[in-house]
Design goal:
The protein starts with 20 loop residues before the first helix and ends with a helix. By secondary structure, it is mainly alpha-helical. The protein is built from one helix and no strands. The radius of gyration is 17 Å and the shape is elongated. It has a domain of 37 residues.
């Protein structure tokens, strides 16, 4: 089974400037929100796959 792996190990170019604690928190919260949305999408996709399997 082939799995897409591009970009999974790299977090991008390292920042050249130090971030304030407030900015770090803001970035972390945005990342959490993104990952939660991704998780919900994957749950829905898995449910659709299960339903399709039941029908066939």
């Amino acid at each position: 089974f082939w799995e897409e792996r591009r970009g999974k190990g790299s977090t991008g170019r390292p920042s050249t400037q130090k971030l304030s604690a407030e900015k770090k928190l803001e970035k972390a919260e945005a990342r959490i929100k993104y990952l939660e949305a991704e998780n919900e999408l994957l749950k829905k996709l898995e449910e659709l796959e299960r339903q399709a399997k039941k029908r066939s």
